[in-house]
Specification:
Length: about 290
Amino acid sequence: MRSHILARIDLDQKRLDDDLAYPAAVPRVEEEYDEFSSGYWKNLSLANSSGQADDTAYVDIDGSALTTEHGKNTPYLSELVNTVFDRDRVKMVRARNLIDAMVVSHRDFVDLGEDNDRYFRTFMVLEDNPQAFHSDSDTVIRMRPGELWYLDAAAVHSAVNFSSQSRQSLCVDFIFDGQRDEASIFRDLSSYQPDLSPEIRERAAFTSDLEQRLLRLSEVVNRRNFKDVLFLLSKIHFDYNVPGERTYDWLLDICRTAGDDQLIAKAEMVRDYMINVRALGERFSINDWVSVAA
């Protein structure tokens, strides 16, 4: 697992609570990467390339990200970014929330066509929730409030909140122009503490019997429940010791056994889009069957 804790930030709970009331009240709107999620997943741009609050796309920019209306309405979060990080290096800032929902296993930055090690994403949970987890390929972690993580978004990763309790977080992106130097993102280099221990989720052994039971979904899968099957399979690695990318192997095997060419084509499209390759600006709908060859 390349994802790891970078620092431990002391949070002012009163000021934080005041700020978190704002993104909680902002209506959720469709954003650039809705195809990755199921349930309630909200992303608010606090700073981005355009300075527009409704701009949720991540793009390469020269200079630092511009504060949006959302960022101005969350002064404590904006202050955290300005005081913890070298603000000149910040490329995007987002407030995120995941409630009774998940983000399926996927890779980011595959559509940017460059060395993924240039892109550096940090993530900090702002609300504690024992039912919310992140995964990094074959490891599942529970992030605790104030832990500032490097999130290896170029690896296969996923997130889930099994509860209806809010779990807001702060996501800040950087780009390295030269050699990768984690400490350089901080305003004060003494903040960098890469040796803190994470909370790793204990998972049950994944057995061949369980895999065969999953593959029997071939008996019921169809176009109407294809998305349900995908998200059911995506939850397995949070409870069992198996990598998240296996989701797409199971999905393809299930569709092949079902013998439906459209299901097979769709499963291949989902796998390629989520973890292999996609074009810059390419969008994908799990529920769209018109574009799937008969």
